[in-house]
């Protein structure tokens, strides 16, 4: 499979992307009862197990389709970008269990439009899960308890007017907020304050590494336990975003807000009703 690699740019982490090839006709369907959850590492080609991304949130859309969300920059192929993909052109596999066959198919991803780290505010991918799998709110470290709502927050730049509360952003004033992200990936579980918010792209000291792209970030609910040895490093909170990249700046860890993703889905659905992922809600399944 031909791979397209993003260039290394002055301190910006190298991110792997793959071009789309049609699904194999002989792929084995996923077995009943398989759980799909946040932090699951996913492949787009079983022949390239070291080129992977990560699931950030799992749930259903308003059409009751089972949906998983990851990062848009994980795939780069202009033939398929920026439109719904009802055809099963790109299967998605659980990296830890390829033998189950596809757990879903890519239905939408945003072209990065020249950026080395994905589109500025719309760097997301929609995956429709196959009927045989079960969405789960519980990842290895994080339990997602719905979508983050910020009633008094600034609207996402992608939002329609009026914006929904889930389309509003966390504050990031240096000395005027307690907003923290808790994230999960190859480094385990980390948390850190939101130090900057640029059009719904959050910077935080919560760490990640290459191939964590698309992975989960939840909001630390004030007063709730932090992940620690005492909690077996588990944490729970509303879904707040997905891992985007390491970029120039301090701290270098950046995340696409859930508000940006949900707002863009609603705006796209208003223009073309029925888009995959519109009205997404995190599953309540354990």
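Sequence proposed for the structure above (286 residues):
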């Amino acid at each position: 499979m031909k791979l397209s690699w993003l260039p290394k740019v002055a301190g910006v982490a190298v991110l792997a992307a793959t071009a789309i090839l049609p699904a194999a006709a002989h792929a084995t369907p996923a077995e009943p009862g398989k759980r799909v959850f946040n932090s699951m590492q996913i492949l787009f080609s079983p022949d390239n197990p070291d080129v992977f991304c990560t699931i950030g949130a799992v749930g259903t859309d308003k059409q009751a389709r089972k949906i998983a969300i990851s990062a848009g920059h994980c795939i780069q192929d202009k033939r398929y970008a920026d439109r719904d993909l009802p055809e099963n052109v790109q299967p998605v596999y659980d990296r830890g269990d390829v033998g189950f066959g596809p757990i879903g198919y890519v239905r939408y991803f945003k072209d990065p439009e020249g950026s080395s780290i994905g589109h500025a505010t719309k760097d997301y991918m929609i995956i429709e899960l196959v009927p045989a799998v079960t969405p789960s709110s519980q990842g290895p470290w994080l339990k997602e308890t719905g979508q983050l709502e910020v009633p008094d927050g600034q609207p996402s730049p992608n939002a329609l007017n009026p914006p929904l509360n889930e389309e509003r952003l966390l504050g990031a004033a240096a000395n005027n907020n307690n907003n923290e992200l808790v994230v999960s990936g190859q480094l385990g579980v980390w948390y850190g304050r939101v130090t900057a918010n640029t059009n719904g792209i959050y910077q935080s000291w919560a760490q990640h590494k290459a191939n964590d792209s698309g992975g989960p970030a939840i909001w630390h609910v004030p007063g709730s336990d932090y992940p620690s040895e005492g909690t077996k490093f588990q944490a729970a909170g509303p879904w707040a975003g997905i891992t985007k990249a390491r970029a120039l700046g301090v701290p270098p860890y950046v995340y696409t807000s859930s508000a940006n993703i949900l707002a863009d889905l609603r705006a796209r659905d208003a223009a073309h009703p029925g888009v995959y992922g519109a009205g997404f809600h995190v599953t309540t399944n354990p």
